Amino acid sequence: MNAISPGLAGSGAGIAFEEARARVLALVERPLPAEEVPIDSCTGRVAAAPVRARLSLPGFDQAAMDGYAVCTSGLRPDAWLPVAGRTTAGEAQGWLLPGSAHRILTGAPVPVGADSVIAQEDVLQVGVMVRIGMAPDAGAHLRRRGEDIHAGDLLVREGTLLDWRHVTVLAAQGIEAVGVRRRPRVVVISSGRELRRGGETLRPGQIHDSNQPMLRSLLQAWGAEVRARPVVADDAASMRDALCSASWADLILTSAGISVGEEDHVRDALLALGGSLAVLKVAMKPGKPLGAGRIGDAVFVGLPGNPQAALAGAVTFVRPLLARMAGTEEPGTLAARAGFGMRRKTGRAEFVPVGLSLRGTDLWAERTGPDGSGRLAPLLHADGLGFLPAGQDAIEPGDPLEVLPFGAGAAWVGEAAGA
Ligand SMILES: Nc1nc2c(c(=O)[nH]1)N[C@H]1C(S)=C(S)[C@@H](COP(=O)(O)OP(=O)(O)OC[C@H]3O[C@@H](n4cnc5c(N)ncnc54)[C@H](O)[C@@H]3O)O[C@H]1N2
Ligand code: MOO
């Protein structure tokens, strides 16, 4: 079998973005295996199975206020009642003596025979007697067994990205551990003889490697377990060695060396090791020189070297791949309005870094810097990437703009909805 799929690079402009994404996502056949983790460490993990309530909550009829439990049947306004009995939270259910009031504290089981609670602010207490004001309605200030959650209710769907909300409810159920997908393991390999790590002195022509730290940080935020390899020099043998040493990975990511220059060795190294490519050039800007395929048991994505191109490839290809491995959905896009205008050549999907802000109830997206996939400053204030489809030749201020937020979940959605 030819290791290179037909139409790998599409036309001169590359494979259409949507087609490339479909091909790349198809590289993941099934989600990663499940494992159990304590709920204390399940935040950011994906539920591998549905979780149902094993307890009804509240587990018993209980007082919602500090006050007096009474029986409303035959109770008159302004009645005087003797206080007999007392129940506090954590104690077992007591009994209401007929014709009396039972002292009760919030969260305590309502005594047998009582059907409501009067808040202590609403009674006059004189010695062992209380005078009620208005006679309460049956059920007043009571929390009924099961009114919040019924045993058997579906609490967490399979594929849910877990966070503090699920931790809270699972804890209330007494559930200590939850089944989640194993974290995707990702190896990140930067290549380029110009690259130096932080702390290393730059000689003429050299730069610090920013892609590997960028990718590592993004990948961790997206739930992956990441290992970085030392920077690989621009030669095929070193790249082959680096790829060979990444067998731990579910996903191998390379940065740079995927374009057409004579120093670009990623593709040849991959193919020499028996890997295959499903995509080599994508009709997107930035990020056109992007390769993806398989090597051994791992999925491979070769990102371009320019930082904004590597970012665009990571957000549009790597994040959905991770979501698929973890058996969840990638975060949704946001419907914003463009705070800018631009004219452009059609033929490639384009991704522009944008900062988001709310004006009234609308989310507005402003560009955070000028064009240039090598620029880093525009990333500092970007919340996501604005997406212009391949056929769109212009955008005017106020036009709708779809935005891919950078986060693992769509943090902005809730804020916008609540505004
Ligand atoms: N003749 C052509 N030249 C280029 C094309 C093309 O189609 N024809 N495509 C351009 C585009 S678009 C991009 S993007 C780059 C991608 O090339 P590579 O992925 O092979 O990357 P390099 O050429 O090695 O590097 C590009 C650029 O990025 C800098 N870089 C690389 N790694 C890092 C890193 N880890 N941290 C920070 N910056 C990095 C590198 O120094 C270069 O400036 O190719 C264009 N050329
Ligand atoms: O991917 Mo390149 O950076 O399109 O410009």
UniProtKB/TrEMBL annotation:
One of its GO terms (biological process) is Mo-molybdopterin cofactor biosynthetic process. Keywords: Magnesium, Metal-binding, Molybdenum, Molybdenum cofactor biosynthesis, Transferase. Its cofactor is Mg(2+). Catalyzes the insertion of molybdate into adenylated molybdopterin with the concomitant release of AMP. Its EC number is 2.10.1.1. Belongs to the MoeA family. Pathway: Cofactor biosynthesis; molybdopterin biosynthesis. PANTHER family: GEPHYRIN (PTHR10192:SF5), MOLYBDOPTERIN BIOSYNTHESIS PROTEIN (PTHR10192). It comes from the Bacteria. This is Molybdopterin molybdenumtransferase. It holds the Pfam family MoeA_C. The keyword Secreted does not apply. It is an enzyme of class 2 (transferase). GO terms for molecular function: metal ion binding; molybdopterin molybdotransferase activity. InterPro entries: MoaB/Mog-like_dom_sf, MoaB/Mog_dom, MoeA-like, MoeA_C_domain_IV, MoeA_C_domain_IV_sf, MoeA_linker/N, MoeA_linker/N_sf. GO terms for cellular component: cytosol.
